[in-house]
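Q: I have two molecules that I believe assemble together. Could you output structure tokens for the complex as a whole instead of separate predictions?
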Amino acid sequence: MEDMLFYDRLQFAFTITFHYIFPQLTMGLSLLIVYFKWRYLRNNIEKYNNAAKFFMKIFAINFTMGVVTGIPMEFQFGTNWAKFSELTGGIIGQTLAMEGMFSFFLESSFLALFIFGEKLMGQKLHFLTGFLVFLGSWASGWFILATNAWMQHPVGYEILDNGKFVLENFSAIFTNPWLLPAFLHNQLASVVTSSFVVASIGAFYVLRNKQTDYGKLFLKTGVIFGLISSVLVAFPTGDWNAKNVAKYQPAAFAAMEGIFETEDAGAEIVLIGQPNMVEKKLDNKIAVPNILSFLTYQEWDKQITGMDQFEEDELPDNIPALYYSYHIMVGLGTIFIGVMALALFFLWRKKLYNIKPLLWTIMFLVPFPYIANLTGWYTAELGRQPYLVYGLLRTSDGISPTVSSGNTLFTLLGFVALYMLLGLLFLVLVGKTINQGPKPQIH
Amino acid sequence: MEIFWYVIIAVVLAVFFVLDGYDFGTGIIHLFFAKKEKDKEVIAKSAGLFWDSNEVWLVAAGGMLFMAFPTFYASVFSGFYLPLIIVLWLIVFRAIGLEFRGQFKYQMWKDIWDTSFGVSSFLLALFFGIALGNIVRGVNLGSVENGVSAHEGHYFFLPLWDSSFSPLSETPGVIDWFTIIIGLISVVTLSIHGANWVILKTNSSINSKLKGVIFKLNIALTILTIFSLFVWQIVNPNSLDNFIDKPYLIVFPIVYFTGLIGLFFIKKIKKNSHAFVLSTLLIVGGITSSLASLFPVILPSVNDTHEHLTIYNTAASEYGLSVALTWGIIGFILLFVYMIIQKRLMGGKIDNMDYGH
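A: Yes, here they are, computed for all two components at once.
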């Protein structure tokens, strides 16, 4: 039984991690593509149109990856989490079905038109199809976050005698206080990723002295979008989410902040330290007193409940992983703001394109927003443990009753092998596209 | 309300098999009949341009099944664990086969991805047929052995095969001689459908030859169909009851046989779209007839201990289903609009469309 739960969770964690590499780029990138296309409509400079089309190629590769790795996500609810699906399908089935209906059909219909239809449609319609792709991909984020928000903070339900959750109030699902901050935070974080990708490709072109006019455009656009989104991810949306966790999941909040003991006065904020689960304390801690109380409640002396106040089986089951995920996300987010602010300063002083160390930094930073996005999700998901539906349905009660751990290990190994292959092919293709660059090829 | 969602999901599934069905069929045709590089390229392209928007129908069907019949979704997806995950892998290989073949100009590279596309399309067609066979035959709900249930009555787990390979075994597996026959019917049907698609959408040099292929496949399909009707009675003796009780259901088999008979005149049919309509009838008729023969059961139990899964004992709440009806209607209207726009802009032959580079 323990084994089954472990492999089911590992397979879901692995497949969702790999999957979320792709949508986090496409959601943000669609916004930047719409921006480039819009600039082209306004100024009629071919460079902007080529930029839009170039990033649409990158978008298309990511979209394909997102589709083929996304179907296993939808299916795994049934294959590995059958009991969870049976009990909650009446509610989260709504949002997942709506995602297919309102987002995927929109996205896939107009993506094909955006890629193949520029000559057929004229520029204004072409812009419109791009905008609809953007709308579709953000709608997808909205429905997934609505699903997740319900699991984090269930609303609008009724529990029957047989344990089934049934929908009682449809609109409550979309007015869930967890949803809007989580959605905004997530979407802005995906804009961070795509801004870094755009800026990074720009830095690559400038450093390589190849297609530098595009390189400069990408850098400029990426840095501006990158700074704005990085700031907004932290404040107000990140702050807002943290307050939600403190309010609705105090045990998760204590664990992610690393507060083992409740202090009488205000709580300190931990910058660095390693959770020591044997002695229930942080090793090598560096912390600033009272800041956490202030950030959370705007009161320096407000008490924050530590992990000592919760029953063992109410606390997340992997506290170190949760703590690290959260701190990596916050730490990286802070670095992003710093680097992008510096880059924008030099952009304003018209020196950015000549400061090589900064360009190298921007280029090599590209994996980190992905890591920040993923660790953000780990924070949300590990924090929700030991529940699937917070406070109501335990993770161990959600797995498929008939699928053995041997079968799950078999499919997990298959997914690992297949996704290694997919990852390699993806890198080859994206590398090839970047190498060709946005300049139109002459046939 | 249950019936309404049952019909909607059946329609979405049928659309999926009609649309992605031609992609699978195109893959099979590609595997066996495309020899020249120019033909290979254009045939792969005739699936490559459309597969991802077609696959969305599968995602939509999955989502709706989850929403409307959560117990059925949970039971079937966990019970058919291995074949489902294998199908997911095949879907990946099909997709990357199409997407990657045009990326480099080496023959070897193209051959690898052509094989990936062709073989996975063939296996997908086979597996989807086998899946239908399993639904018709039923499963050992509750995993009953010697009168003792190992699970709740709506759960089960099927091995890929049982040592007897017989659909009449007490613990049938996914693959047995009956489901294999249905699988073959699916392969042949989708091959015909794919060949029609290739003729409709491309100017490949094998188009005229494919008409002959369709004719021969249709003979094979007729034999398989007649044979399957007999064994169907052995596997599921009640399968005609619905048609006797509600004679109007006979319209579904008529749809199927219209397609089957019509395709014998493939060489005389002038408009390629008409031939495509006939193979569409085959798919739609085949799926709807099978579902109609079971209704309202959606997964029969092969033991007497547990009752069949029906649309009534697996459905979500009445309120949930009716809320979903409201957004569902809006969604379908939107979808219809998208399809008209897409059709107007992307109709016709695709030989000269730019794809994959």
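A: One point stands out. Chain A touches chain B through 66 residues (CB under 8 Å).
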